[in-house]
Design goal:
single chain, five-stranded antiparallel beta sheet, three-stranded antiparallel beta sheet, rod-shaped, transmembrane, Capsular polysaccharide biosynthesis protein, transmembrane helix, membrane
């Protein structure tokens, strides 16, 4: 509880909370504008078979029938797409496309698992996404990646000796997206800068406040209320009214009216409800007994040995 009390008190302080918050906002603004802008672009491709199917007839007199490529999807196409994805993720291939490893430009090639729109679909997809510093660079690398996928697919089929009439093709599901500006990096940098400066600022202020509290209690000034002597502990120093002088003896104090104090002459031992004058000309010490009765409360007329005193300071029953 003490921690949060100190923190909230620091936030409310005019020369602590607002300056730290303004400094954190300024740091967040600087981080937001200094963080470079990124653009993303992507395209989705799907592998399809030819209309002649996966095989060709060796007898020209009995040619095979034509088929619909969209109805011939199978595990073979998924295997082919997986091969292409592995080939496109090679670091050398990415460097040729303009996205070297650990560079500012990033290229992602997968089966669509990084695309939220394709999480519930399965198929021979090849998804290409590019994150670059400029929109033109992002769209340019996407175009190069599309060409590289088609070239890689044709080269592997030729290498395996597949009949040209049965070649698998890579078709675009939709055109490449227009490069979009991404602000998530700038927002994250601004938020991190704000939290860093705010935590550091309030941490320093909290440490200083705790160090001051550990040195000792802070003195509290009190204003005397007419007719009432307030005491926080067993003893409390209170100011004497004007005109009262110091005396080395103990004298009972009588509250005879608002703002007035009467002293009875003579030496007395301190009793409950009595006042002990110290060496200060302007202060007295109120001595409170643990067994003080209701007739000797603070603000009432003190008593000697449990007997109330009249206005002249004499004990009465």
């Amino acid at each position: 509880m003490d921690f949060w009390k100190i923190v909230f008190s620091l936030i409310r302080r005019k020369f602590v909370g607002p300056p730290i918050i303004l400094l954190a906002v300024a740091a967040a603004s600087v981080a937001f504008f200094l963080m470079p802008v990124h653009y993303t672009s992507g395209v989705l491709m799907v592998l399809t078979t030819s209309t002649k199917g996966p095989t060709l007839s060796l007898d020209p007199a009995r040619p095979d029938g034509l088929s619909n490529p969209l109805l011939t999807f199978g595990d073979g196409l998924k295997t082919t797409s997986a091969i292409l994805i592995q080939a496109m993720n090679d670091p050398d291939v990415k460097a040729e496309l303009g996205a070297p490893e650990n560079g500012p430009t990033q290229i992602t090639v997968d089966d669509g698992r990084t695309n939220p729109n394709l999480l519930d679909t399965t198929g021979p997809f090849v998804y290409i996404a590019v994150d670059a510093r400029t929109g033109s660079e992002a769209s340019g690398i996407v175009g190069k990646a599309q060409q590289r996928v088609r070239a890689e697919l044709d080269a592997r089929q030729k290498e395996l000796g597949a009949p040209k009439g049965t070649f698998i093709t890579a078709a675009d599901v939709s055109p490449a997206t227009v490069p979009e500006q991404v602000l998530s990096g700038k927002i994250q940098a601004a938020l991190a800068a704000f939290l860093l400066f705010a935590i550091a600022g309030f941490g320093v202020a909290y440490a200083r406040a705790r160090s001051k509290l550990s040195k000792g209690p802070v003195a509290t000034s009190t204003k005397s209320d007419p007719g009432i002597y307030w005491a926080a502990d067993d003893t409390q120093r209170l100011s004497l009214p004007r005109g009262e002088s110091r005396t080395p003896s103990y004298r009972p104090i009588i509250q005879s009216g608002p703002g007035t104090v009467e002293q009875k002459q003579g030496d007395y031992e301190p009793a409950r409800g009595s006042a002990e004058l110290n060496d200060d000309d302007t202060q007295v010490v109120i001595v409170l007994s643990d067994m003080a009765g209701g007739d000797s409360g603070i603000g009432a007329r003190p008593s000697i040995n449990g007997k109330a005193r009249d206005r002249r300071g004499e004990a009465r029953d």
